[in-house]
Amino acid sequence: MTAYVIAHLQDAAPHTDIADYIERLPGTMAPYGGRYLVHFAQHEVKEGSWPGGVVMLGFPDIEAARAWWDSPAYRELAPLRKRHIKGDIIMIDGVPEGYAPTAAVSAIRQAAAAAS
């Protein structure tokens, strides 16, 4: 099941460290099957506020995403980003092919009924 690393990045200051980070990042992801899905593409805010930009990476599964994040190659590279860009980063499992939210709906209905 595909896993995702999603970064909501803000206040990206232009710096050569950032250029180095972006240039070297694909090489750290390749051994784990990682790839860019979104890279600071223009986004439309429909509700709330969403300053900054989004980077989204895809990996074959959560184990591969974790292995990449914890890899010596990425751990060496991460400070280049962290010194110059604020943001939040999450790692999340996707849903399987054909997923239906039926179980989630049932759980919500049961919780709502219990709270009444």
TrEMBL record:
Q: Which stretches make up the DUF1330 domain? A: 2-95
Q: Which InterPro entries match?
A: Dimeric_a/b-barrel, DUF1330
Q: Which PANTHER family match?
A: BLR0684 PROTEIN (PTHR41521:SF4), PTHR41521
What protein am I looking at? DUF1330 domain-containing protein
Species assigned in the record: Yinghuangia soli
